[in-house]
Automatic annotation (TrEMBL):
UniProt catalytic activity: inosine + phosphate = alpha-D-ribose 1-phosphate + hypoxanthine; S-methyl-5'-thioadenosine + phosphate = 5-(methylsulfanyl)-alpha-D-ribose 1-phosphate + adenine; adenosine + H2O + H(+) = inosine + NH4(+); adenosine + phosphate = alpha-D-ribose 1-phosphate + adenine
Keywords in alphabetical order: Hydrolase, Metal-binding, Transferase, Zinc
SUPFAM superfamilies: CNF1/YfiH-like putative cysteine hydrolases
Organism lineage string: Eukaryota, Metazoa, Chordata, Tunicata, Ascidiacea
Gene Ontology terms for molecular function: hydrolase activity; metal ion binding; S-methyl-5-thioadenosine phosphorylase activity
Native source species: Ciona intestinalis (Transparent sea squirt)
This protein's name: Uncharacterized protein
Keyword Kinase: no
Amino acid sequence: KKKKKAGGTKPKDLLVTVGPSLGVCCCEFGIEGSNQFLSIDKACVVWKENHPKPFLNLRLAASILLVKEGIPKSNIDDGTSDGSALATCTKCDPDRKLFSFRRDGPQFGNQVGFIGMK
């Protein structure tokens, strides 16, 4: 299967950074909704002892989907390999540097994503 090109860019040439997000430590999710993540990879859904609902590994799901689209794993930085701030859970971050709906509720918060080309 030939991979898609957008703007003349091939997926194998992309560099991707996955920013901070809700971590598997705090991403408790409903059983029905988590079934969608099972279709990505069973490792994306984590059952913890004494918890009736599963937890999702959103970072792993994003990486797997990016690889399926042709982006080499070596071109994806999600912060997990070096423990960088990219891997920060937005809910349980002790410094509360980032907005988290699950931690703070519906009060205003901003996060930004961007795409750049050279």
